[in-house]
């Protein structure tokens, strides 16, 4: 419809400016996937549609547009969602769907910080625009739940309240969710997530994770911890091994019944008074669970690819097969790729990146001489 105004109207210039602005705003909402008006958190292209195969039909045939988180056929995955690590989270979700045997049976539980620059509603809209058919729910994590328990860490990023959200999954997620896979935002999955989901937690074990018993366990705690006459006794009767909390299978029924949130918070309170560790949210998990973890194959957490917590230097893969790559440490692949200083393994993350404004890295990748995970793992210099 054409609008007509008297040419001599005093309001014409203002109206024209307003209509031009309004039309641009409306086009932005309708035609630009992943852009959220009012907050510049980047632009993401819409992911391909990943549908269930015939072997999954019996599980999803009765589903319409709404999927309840209480559906017993679902694989539950919990992740945090914030503006700083958003690009990593989107890539992680993309990788899970791309390799899942039944992608429509995966339900994502996103934990968003209450005071993130991008509100939970904004983040939810972005996820929906990027993955239109994804089954997910966004929960608000109240930072005051944990803020007074957090002590300073070796790296400031480890002090974020959202880093501690995994401690509260038993309270945050719907009560009907009795089991969940927790994943960090700096991972990609290159195998069927159902295999990890099917991990059996034997006996009364609450969590499962890859263990690394060759690691020097003592370095995760300060000398004041080990010299204390009583604190080291918390490991009595256990053979504690290091495990990384970025990939865990969690039995939430046993978690809730055992009061494990409270046990972790108790150690955080001791830390505030005694300074018994330096590494943020990991040590309390080690204190509560180390030595009583269901050991999962190392292929499910090829961690440390982000280097250490200070320099973020390049790392190589551990020996053996790979199902999940984890850029734990200071260096993140999207940052290093954009700065044109990538590590070789960062190029394995790149195919899952849905951020539209990527820097052209084709030349860098061709110079690297590798194009796939198989080529990297076949070259002995990366093992």
From TrEMBL:
Annotated compartments: Endomembrane system
Enzyme Commission number(s) of this protein: 2.4.1.-
GO MF term list: glycosyltransferase activity
Pathway(s) the chain acts in: Glycan metabolism; pectin biosynthesis
Highest taxon of the lineage: Eukaryota
GO CC, alphabetical: Golgi apparatus
Stored Gene3D superfamilies: Spore Coat Polysaccharide Biosynthesis Protein SpsA, Chain A (3.90.550.10)
Keyword entries, A-Z: Cell wall biogenesis/degradation, Glycoprotein, Glycosyltransferase, Membrane, Signal, Signal-anchor, Transferase, Transmembrane, Transmembrane helix
Membrane-protein topology: Single-pass type II membrane protein
Enzyme class, UniProt record, top EC level: transferase
An individual GO BP term: cell wall organization
Family affiliation: Belongs to the glycosyltransferase 8 family.
PANTHER family: GALACTURONOSYLTRANSFERASE-LIKE 9-RELATED (PTHR13778:SF40), GLYCOSYLTRANSFERASE 8 DOMAIN-CONTAINING PROTEIN (PTHR13778)
Identification of the protein by name: Hexosyltransferase
């Amino acid at each position: 419809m054409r609008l007509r105004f008297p040419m001599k109207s005093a309001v014409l210039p203002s109206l024209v400016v307003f209509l031009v602005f309004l039309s641009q705003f409306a086009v932005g909402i309708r035609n630009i996937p992943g852009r959220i008006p009012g907050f510049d958190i980047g632009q993401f292209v819409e992911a391909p549609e990943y549908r269930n195969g015939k072997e999954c039909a019996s599980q999803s045939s009765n589903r319409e547009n709404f999927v309840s988180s209480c559906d017993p056929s679902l694989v539950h995955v919990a992740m945090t969602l914030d503006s700083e690590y958003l690009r990593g989270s989107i890539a992680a979700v993309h990788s899970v769907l791309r390799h899942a045997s039944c992608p429509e049976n995966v339900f994502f539980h996103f934990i968003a910080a209450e005071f993130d620059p991008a509100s939970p509603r904004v983040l939810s809209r972005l996820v929906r625009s990027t993955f239109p058919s994804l089954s997910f729910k966004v929960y608000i994590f109240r930072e005051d739940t944990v803020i007074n328990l957090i002590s300073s860490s070796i790296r400031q990023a480890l002090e974020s309240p959202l880093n501690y959200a995994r401690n509260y999954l038993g309270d945050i997620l719907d009560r009907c969710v009795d089991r969940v896979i927790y994943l960090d935002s700096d991972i990609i999955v290159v195998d069927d997530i159902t295999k990890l989901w099917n991990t059996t937690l034997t006996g009364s074990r609450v969590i499962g994770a890859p263990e690394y018993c060759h690691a020097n366990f003592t370095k995760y705690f300060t000398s004041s911890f080990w010299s204390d006459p009583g604190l080291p006794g918390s490991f009595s009767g256990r053979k504690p091994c290091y495990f990384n909390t970025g990939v865990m299978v969690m039995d939430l029924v046993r978690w809730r019944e055992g009061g494990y949130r409270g046990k972790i918070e108790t150690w955080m309170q001791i830390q505030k008074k005694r300074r018994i560790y330096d590494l943020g949210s990991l040590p309390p998990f080690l204190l509560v669970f180390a030595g009583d973890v269901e050991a999962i194959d190392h292929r499910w957490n090829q961690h440390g690819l982000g280097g250490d917590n200070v320099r973020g230097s390049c790392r190589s893969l551990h020996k053996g097969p790979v199902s999940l790559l984890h850029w734990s440490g200071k260096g993140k692949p999207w940052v290093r790729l954009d700065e044109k200083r990538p590590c070789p393994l960062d190029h394995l993350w790149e195919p899952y990146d849905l951020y539209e404004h990527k820097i052209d890295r084709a030349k860098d990748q061709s110079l690297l001489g590798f194009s796939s995970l198989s080529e990297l793992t076949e070259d002995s210099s990366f093992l």
